[in-house]
Amino acid sequence: MKFPMTLVGLAALACCSAQAQSPTPPQPAQQKLERVEVTGSKIKRTDRETPSVVQVITAEQIRKSGFATVEELLRSSSAVDVSGSVGDGVGSGFVSGVNAVSMRGMGAQGTLVLINGRRLAPVGAVDINFGRGNLVSTNTIPKDAIERIEILKDGASAIYGSDAMAGVINYVLKKEYTGGELAASAGANSQGDGRKRSASGSFGFGNLATQRFNVFGGLEISQRDPVTYREASRIGRQSDRDAWLIANSTAGTPRLPDFSYGSIGSFWGNYYSLPATTPSSTTGPNDPKLYLGTLAGCPDERTVGKGVPQKQPGQQDSSPLGQCRYNLDDNTEFMAKQDRFSGSVRGNFAVNEDTTAFVDLMYSRTKTVNVLAPQSLATLVGANNTRVSTWALPNGKVLGQNAIILAPDHPDNPMRGTAKPQTVQLAYRFEDLDQREISDLSATRLSAGVEGVYAGWDYDAAVVYSKMGNKGIRTQRLLSSRLNELIAKGGPYRFGKANDAAAIDWLTDDATNTGDSTVTAADVRASREWFEMAGGRAAVAVGLEARHESLSAVPDDAFRSGDYVGLVANGTSGSRNVMGGFGELRLPVLKSLEVQAALRAEHYSDFGNSTTGKLGYKWTVLPGQLMMRGTAATGYRAPSISQISRDGFFVSFHSYGTERIYDPMRCNWNASDNSKSTSKSTQPNQWRDCNLLNYTSGVPSAQQPGSLATAVTPNPAVKPEKSRSATLGLVLSPTDYLDVSLDAWYFRRNNEIRVQRGFDIMTSYIANPAANEQFLIRDSNPGTWLTDAQGAPIPNSGPILALLRQYGNFNYTVTSGVDYEANLRLPAHPLGKFKFKLEGSYTARYDQQILSGGAVERIDGTTTSGVPKTKASVRIDWSRNDTSAWLRLNHTDPLWSNTSSAQCRYNPTALQAYPSAQGWCTATRQTTLDLGLSYTGFKNVVLAGSLLNVTNEYISGGAATVPAQFGHWDSGNRSDADLGRRFNVSLSYRWD
């Protein structure tokens, strides 16, 4: 493999020049300990302040944060956006149990996560959401092994390579430890829901200085209980806004506090006569002309007219007496059960005074079990269209499942044997199936190496093997082939009857997807002082790295053949080799001015080369009082294996919610007056054909088509994403008691790797059908085709069932803003010591342009970007003798929804006028108060407790909802913050 000559030359020049200098005398041991490597630079230094902005969170700060997990602490950082991050509360749709961090709204794929400056393997699964070619899960790192976390708020591809575009999160683990510690903690919210328990133990023995070795390690176990939506409805203090939402709920809107209208699909199924056409009104499920009855056995508490009222306040229609309902809130989980285990051990051996060998091993396992609402087939259809669900195969073929339509002689037809037997449609839920989504993640990391000083060089060389395995299981999923057989002629499974395990096993199977991701790497890096300059001695760092990456995700045979009702298969297989090297210079141009320059070149075996650079400066204007700093950098992100591998296959569902998209063959849509007519046939337009991609404004739910299935193909021609970033700031210390920092930042990401949007495909098709029809899959059933004036079918004119999409490079995202921090330490006082800290971030701009020449979307402060204008916190710390306490006030600005907020503000209807007048047309701002207390008066014992979100404000519900949507809970991934007011208590005992 040809290595980039520019980098070889730089490394050779640095080495040869260093050898020409007089050898640097060995430094005393104390000075060695003071020289450290700070994230964002590979040059060891005694001064931690670099041109880049680095936030350091120590192990003590982690303990005093009051958060139950490190992941929750990271989400509280002002530079971290919750929307682009991935939480492990529930499944993400492609993989569960993963925690991934996003900075600056650039998504988890734009933030590099490291352990001791080295990479981890990503999750062994495929996530086709925007840009998520790979996800590195942070909940695999043992908390007790962490010495500190360094958050680099700057682009750093010139130092670390791919992915470090928006920042770097580096977990620095302990390198030496003696003694032992036992710790335990517990927590829950104020209702006792979401209980968490953890226990850990760590040990260490040996002294490197006197015994030439040190060995330490630890174990940590934690458990989290599940939370249902019914339990979640009790979370949070009800505001006037929330009370209005509840009182004005509309039909078909579940998950409002203390009320769920429920589903007509239940185990004791409701049966209907089969209409001639698909119902186009919300009264369809309750139309007395269609409803015939309910299978025997529905409990009174679920029966309309007994435990369920016929009509709820604010609803326009009533339910037929005797209808059986299923309560989604009581049986669907808001937060999944999770069990985590992690362990680590490290051994150090002093080869000689200047050389230390080390080996460390980490293993973790995270099992997440999410209980799902049992599958149902409850959508009413017409005789001309019996399909209730469609899903695509990777080859573009569209499969579908028909409704449960029972012939008059079917053994489970309740009209069989009556005076007037007839075909019925059964709205049914398979409640006797135990349907769960289980994600079993295992992470293994082994590293071994040597570090020390040789001929004036501080060096560090290591080999690393990192593996992330994932086994995803969806239990007891319906097999379409067996279900069709059951509907046609009956079988061992009986609708609404007691079914044994054999009958359930005949009808279902566990859908399984097994994945593995590995990174095997070897690297060497070294730094040293080089030559004298006006401000002191220059320093240089060089390094080389070689690594092999592999990824596989393999769904089972039934998954790939599409036999699971409504499930789509995603998989991939591939590997690549990466060679890279870097050089870095620290130039003390003046005593007060330091300049940093870095260059990195890498070669990927699958897409080619990339070269990135960085310049930075640190200017001490007034020693000890005023420092200015700034950086300018280029960065990149390599396409993931799944995005460019020829062996990848992905399927998803797609919707778009800002503009109406229609099928011009089957609907002539005039957006100016909303008129609908057809010239292609004598058939009336169907709402589905005039409302593709799920545009919802003003359209009743029964008339919405739902998302379209899409088959997504990898693209070997995809190029890397490129970025440019800059920071400019100052650090002011006017007194010994006050430090203030202010840093402006700018990031631009070009060539963004995205999946084509269905909206763009349909827009191109509407403009030129002949040139773009190959991207559409239509129903091949002639019974669904249009007919001409003579009644003859028009070939290939069926409804659009799916779209064919591909990965590609799109245009850009630009974001800019200001980070600020102030630390005030008051002089000691008889009342105790006081410290104050203000930390925050203001996002001035977040713009996107998806297609070159298209509209620029300005989406800062909207739910589209998930990036608030302001995110900040104020913390007060107090300590006296053995007692310490803290108080923290957190604030996040409200978010606008581009569609729903506008509808709320400008819709003249009375339903929207009231929330608009009250200023409720944004997602609620988040302002919460936390407090904590700790006591160390007992020997070697630390007692601590915290109460978070003291006033019990809504977090998830308030942040994700505007009144036009009438939904109460965010559908995104859950984290502990979504539990409302919650407490944590901990006890630790340490000995030397």
Automatic annotation (TrEMBL):
Protein name listed in UniProt: TonB-dependent receptor
Listed PANTHER family: PTHR47234, TONB-DEPENDENT RECEPTOR
Matching PROSITE patterns: PROKAR_LIPOPROTEIN, TONB_DEPENDENT_REC_3
Family note: Belongs to the TonB-dependent receptor family.
Biased composition (Low complexity): 305-316
InterPro entries in the record: Beta-barrel_TonB, Beta-barrel_TonB_sf, Plug_dom, Plug_dom_sf, TonB-dep_rcpt-like
Organism this protein belongs to: Roseateles subflavus
Superkingdom of this protein's organism: Bacteria
Region (Disordered): 303-322
Upper taxonomic lineage: Bacteria, Pseudomonadati, Pseudomonadota, Betaproteobacteria, Burkholderiales
Main subcellular localisation: membrane
Keywords: Cell outer membrane, Membrane, Receptor, Signal, TonB box, Transmembrane, Transmembrane beta strand, Transport
TonB-dependent receptor plug domain ranges (all copies): 47-168
